Amino acid sequence: MTYEKSYFFSGRSKSESLNMDTSQIVHNMRNKRNFLEKSGACCIVMPCHISHSWYDEASQECSLPYLHIAECVASELKEAKLKPIEAGSPLRIGLLATNATLAAGFYQEKFQNQGFEVVLPDKATMEHTVIPAIEALNRKDMEGACNLLRIALQVLLVRAVSSIVLAFHDMWDLLPQDDPLLKKSIDPLDALARSTVKWVKSLHRKHRKTESAQLKPPSVYLFLVRRSLNKYSFCIVICKTLLKLGFTCK
């Protein structure tokens, strides 16, 4: 599926993003999930932000663990024991994403469930920095996209957020890895990868304790929803760990 890269990758308004007919999307996701279940998968993950808009529908009646990207991020934020920037204020987490991801609301819901106050870009920031940054990235104007991304991140930091969730993986390569702005940010796909590895390791420990410890470990399948180098990078991180543990990754 290429919805995030085409329709959702643009700067469309929230109303436009939510009013489209999504029945075919849900149908396709369920078909892929059913295929994975029948293929012997032991866990399903979706390394795609916007696809989580239909997580509830896609995971309904699923017989396998189905990790949710926002829950993985929220858990890591909770475990990090961050402190509020302003004494006496609630712990604020900034969220930077496309209009479609923000409109879906699943990040806000999961973060608020953990007691965080979610800070979103205001209308001016979206219109003058975030959406133009997306458009610049589409034009391959990396310098322009980088400059606009810096502004968007700084605007959120000024609003006393303890950390920023940059739910837009294509933007992560714009800034140097040692950039201070990135050190204040979290990549949800990294959090999902770490949670997947953690889950697989727990399965590995259980597997070794069973009577069938000498049998070949089960395969782990990854639910890829669109072609992307970022998704393949995600797979490489997980598959390296799986192979070390003796699992088969498909």
From TrEMBL:
Protein name: Aspartate racemase
Record InterPro entries: Asp/Glu/hydantoin_racemase (IPR015942), Asp/Glu_race (IPR001920)
Keyword line: Isomerase
A GO term, aspect molecular function: amino-acid racemase activity
Record-linked PANTHER family: ASPARTATE-GLUTAMATE RACEMASE FAMILY (PTHR21198:SF7), GLUTAMATE RACEMASE (PTHR21198)
Organism per entry: Acacia crassicarpa
Signal peptide span: none
